Amino acid sequence: MQSIIEIKHLFYRYEKDTVLENINLSIPDGSFLAIVGPNGSGKSTLLKLILGLLKPQKGEIFLFGQEISKFKAWQQIGYVSQKANSFNTGFPATVFEVVASGLTKKLGMFKFFKKEHSRIVLDALDAVGMKNFHNRNIGELSGGQQQRVFIARALVSEPKLLILDEPTVGVDAENVNAFYQMLNDLNKNRGITLLLVTHDIGTISDKVTHVACLNKNMHFHGETSEFEQLKKEDMSKVYGHDVHLIAHNHDHGGVLK
Amino acid sequence: MIQGIFHYEFLQNAFLTGILIGILAPLLGVFIVVRRLSLIADALSHVTLAGIAASLLLERNVAALAGLNPLYLGMVFSVGGSLFIEKLRGVYKHYQELAIPIILSSGIGLGVIFISLANGFNTDLFSYLFGSVSAVSRTDLLVIFIISILVITVIILLYKELFLLSFDEEHAKASGIAAKSIHFIFIVMVALVIAASMRIVGILLVSSLMTLPVAASIRLAKGFKQTIFLSVLFGEISVLGGLFTAYYLDLAPGGTIVMLAVLILVIAIFYKKLIIKKHVLSEVESSER
Ligand SMILES: Nc1ncnc2c1ncn2[C@@H]1O[C@H](COP(=O)(O)OP(=O)(O)O)[C@@H](O)[C@H]1O
Ligand SMILES: [Mg+2]
Prior knowledge:
- The complex is a heterodimer of chains A (257) and B (289).
- Chain A is an alpha/beta fold.
- Chain A has helices at residues 43-50, 95-100, 104-107, 115-127, 143-155, 173-189, 201-204, 224-239; strands at 3-13, 18-28, 32-36, 58-63, 66-67, 77-80, 161-165, 193-197, 210-215, 217-218, 244-245.
- In chain A, strands 3, 6, 7, 8, 9, 10 and 11 form a seven-stranded mixed β-sheet that branches. Chain A has a four-stranded antiparallel β-sheet with strand order 2-1-4-5, covered by helices on one side.
- In chain A, strand 4 and strand 5 form a beta hairpin.
- Chain B has one domain: Orthogonal Bundle (ABC transporter involved in vitamin B12 uptake, BtuC).
- The radius of gyration of chain B is 20 Å and the shape is globular.
- The complex binds adenosine-5'-diphosphate and magnesium ion.
């Protein structure tokens, strides 16, 4: 199976403290990976590195087999940022307009929206169960509905990979399950690879195919055998049985400075 | 009055310019307001004032520059000021709003120095501060017409990029559009429109024409395109109505235009409240049935 994302020996720091240390990660095509970790553990930073918004001090990132600095096909990657639900809620735009804005890069400069783009927009809204809301102002929706709209915005450029940073923060508890079911459908029915940062480990257990724990290092506490054991015992209890941890920390916790 | 428009060239100039400004200022104003950059218009208008004062000073002291249209130097200062704001926003990444008072006070400071060097206020300067029906020349009209064509073309061509940038700057950058260049083009256009508007509205009130019609239309509009449409409509009503009133009552048009815009805003707020109330009442009614 081809790796959609391949990260090797990645290091990152903003100022003097290292935020990410020797990250190794490989995300297979079609998978649904959840990254978990405490606040400030570098999850959002890792996503921004993958999206090319930050440049690593050391290490390599390959997207669709290509070195990130040479990668051009950004429309293949959809991104729903952690801040998506803290946008200016008074912004006077309809759901349709917001989702259509996802086509901006794909259409290119000096090109206009046409009839056929309306269909793409409505189709994306359909996929996230928000078609009936297309004519509402975005500020009139609940947090969870807004989050679905942002996913639809990411879907219009028909990405192969969708990256979501804590998408359920503004979603009511009773709607979280339906939200993950919707993500599951995107993964299964549309074959979109999903990379998700979340705290809802319990809820996602039966949906995700892979889990990675991040806390500066990407790690599983100890030896591979221990990790295998962990995977067999604890993980099957906590996360459901068809879940495997991925990440290859070749140095087994050895600190690199 | 209507006959006056046909008879007097200065009235033609004022009204045609007014029509153009009534489109441009609220059109750019929509993007400024939703990006919470309303104060940029204020800062740039004060920088423009410094440019105009400088121009009046030069005109008085350098024989070769007699008759120089202050619009040009006003535009140069305004665009220069917009570039400074961008630079400062880069320097103070976490206090981006600091750039605005810095530029605003620099503009006032420079303006005051130039004005006092030119031996204080005169009627010319007064008309730049508060607008004037009679001061608009054919050259002014021509320059403003060219700016209008330029600005409207750019807005149409870059509409979807500007929308994305306004709605979600981070996403715009992540999606790989040339966010920096587009923002730069936008801010230069704002500077040009501010310089162009001063003849009619006056420097001190330019920013109100960019923000008040937008504030009213945001209350009522559904979606972004409708917000633009209503803003331009309200702006146009304010400018034309204000010019008529100013001409009849012999007032500075800046004041009448802005007060009309305020009136529209108040009506919009009450109208919205009324709609909500009606909505609630009819829902109560239907649930009682
Ligand atoms: N722009 C920034 N400048 C400096 N430090 C930052 C910046 N963004 C994040 N950090 C720091 O990097 C660490 C990881 O942050 P982040 O990736 O946002 O964590 P998470 O998403 O896991 O909560 C935190 O200690 C945070 O304080
Ligand atoms: Mg985060």
